[in-house]
Specification:
Blueprint lengths: L1 E2 L6 E3 L8 E3 L9 H18 L16
Antiparallel strand pairs: 1-2, 2-3
């Protein structure tokens, strides 16, 4: 968990250093490090399992037309 300097809230880290999940100060009722970390990881899990793709744009074929 990273305490942010320029904004209220936290950035929760995971297994990959480049993937961070923002947790706002109004989201977890308990603002202990453990509670914020678990909340952030649950948000990341929901993002990976509940989101649905609404649009995909693939321009690879247009590169061969030139």
């Amino acid at each position: 968990m990273i305490n942010l300097k320029d904004v209220e809230g936290w950035a929760v880290t995971g297994h990959h250093n480049d993937v961070l999940t923002y947790v706002g100060p109004d989201e977890p009722q308990d603002q202990s490090e453990i509670a914020v970390g678990l909340f952030g990881r649950s948000k990341r899990h929901r993002d990976g399992t509940e989101l649905h793709v609404v649009h995909v744009e693939d321009k690879r074929a247009s590169a061969n037309l030139g």
